[in-house]
Amino acid sequence: MRLWFYLTSVLLGGAVWAAAQVQVEVQLENEQFLAREPLVAAVRITNYSGQKLRLGKEPDWLRFAVEARGGSIVSKVADPPVTGEFEVESATTATRRVDLAPYFDIGQPGRYAVTAVVNIPQWNRDLSTQPKGFDIISGAKLWEQDFGLPTAGEPGNVAPEVRKFALLQVNRAKQISLYVRLSDLTESRVYRVYPVGTLVSFSKPEGQIDRAGHLHILHQKGARAFNYCVINPDGELVSRQTHEYTATRPALSVDADGKIGVTGGIRRISANDLPPPAAPSPAPEAKPPKS
Fold this sequence. Notes:
The chain is mainly beta. Helices cover 7% and strands 47% of the residues.
């Protein structure tokens, strides 16, 4: 009995010492996320041990666990990739970021909590963070449209794959954000969720799909500023522009060839443009006048 008490005291004492010398914390960018939206966990490791820590060599040096409301464990699809060696000097902090969304089955709306466990191989000890809570929400659907996925070459005898684009509104911390979600027709499989940008409260986003399956989005993000984006059939952003309200209001339109673009207002070149704006040409070098 005394031996058991002694060993337990030693182990607990070592754990308390390690926790005091190295602090670990998990942080999230938001408290609310859409299902399948990138959910990046930032693990902060603060070292006060007086020793240099060497981490990241083993694939299990950093582990995550997610619980649903009520304490049930969320199933893991795969282990998040966390390898990559680095060092944490004493009296410094290092942060490692991991997107958990592809690796945990957190597609259903509800309350969840994530915990990170950091292994210190030099001491053969695991340090756990406090659980960090977050919510998976559905968002408010503003617009949706299904489309046939374009195929290369001549049309065959097989029906095309049908996908669906949807524009979702999310209210967070007094900020309204617009997201685009790409899914199958029944919405049982979500391929991608992408944040388009902020919305003003009175904005009515426009969405149109062209012949190539690209989604064109125009929404108001400021008093006179509009954001124009193009998303390809795989849910990837391929173009982004800023337009401003002048004598006329920017709007989506289709020309005689079926091409979708913005008419009205005026385009403003921005550092946020995609593709990025071309760098200005250097001014010609001034030459002294001939004598």
